[in-house]
């Protein structure tokens, strides 16, 4: 069991609900349709990976190196991907776009993809056997 994965899954799930409601109700009047869609993309990816972390938390073990890599890459990926999107959208809505966040979003996506790839690698031996 990985308490780290469970804890971050719960934190990401909780904050995705709060940010989703914030976007749907408070930001709807302030953001363009494109900005709102980007914000919602960040929330969706955060929630998808919150659920993944919760599931992995009951399957993976913090004492196994590859399991730690899987969990850590997903946690880092969510932070970089979703939170950079939130920063980009909110800063551009205030006419102070934080352009340095632009390259961080795809880096976060790369970390998320790496987490999934490590998960495939971890269980690919089952196909061979």
UniProtKB/TrEMBL annotation:
Keyword match Transmembrane: yes
Species of the source: Polaribacter aestuariivivens
Ranges annotated as spanning the membrane: 6-27, 70-89, 101-121
Upper classification of the organism: Bacteria, Pseudomonadati, Bacteroidota, Flavobacteriia, Flavobacteriales
Location of this chain's protein in the cell: Membrane
Family the entry assigns: Belongs to the UPF0382 family.
Main location: membrane
UniProt xrefs under PANTHER family: TRANSMEMBRANE PROTEIN 256
Keywords: Membrane, Transmembrane, Transmembrane helix
InterPro entries (alphabetical): DUF423
Descriptive protein name: DUF423 domain-containing protein
Pfam family, one: DUF423
GO cellular component: plasma membrane
Membrane topology value: Multi-pass membrane protein
């Amino acid at each position: 069991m990985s308490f780290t994965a469970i804890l971050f899954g719960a934190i990401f799930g909780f904050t995705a609900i709060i940010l989703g409601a914030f976007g749907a109700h408070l930001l709807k009047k302030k953001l363009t349709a494109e900005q709102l869609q980007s914000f919602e993309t960040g929330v969706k990816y955060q929630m998808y990976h919150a659920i993944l972390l919760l599931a992995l938390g009951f399957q993976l073990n913090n004492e196994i190196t590859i399991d730690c890599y899987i969990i850590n890459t997903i946690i880092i990926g969510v932070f970089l991907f979703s939170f950079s999107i939130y920063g980009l959208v909110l800063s551009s809505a205030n006419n102070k776009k934080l352009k340095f966040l632009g390259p961080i979003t795809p880096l976060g996506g790369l970390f998320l993809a790496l987490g999934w790839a490590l998960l495939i690698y971890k269980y690919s031996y089952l196909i061979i056997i």
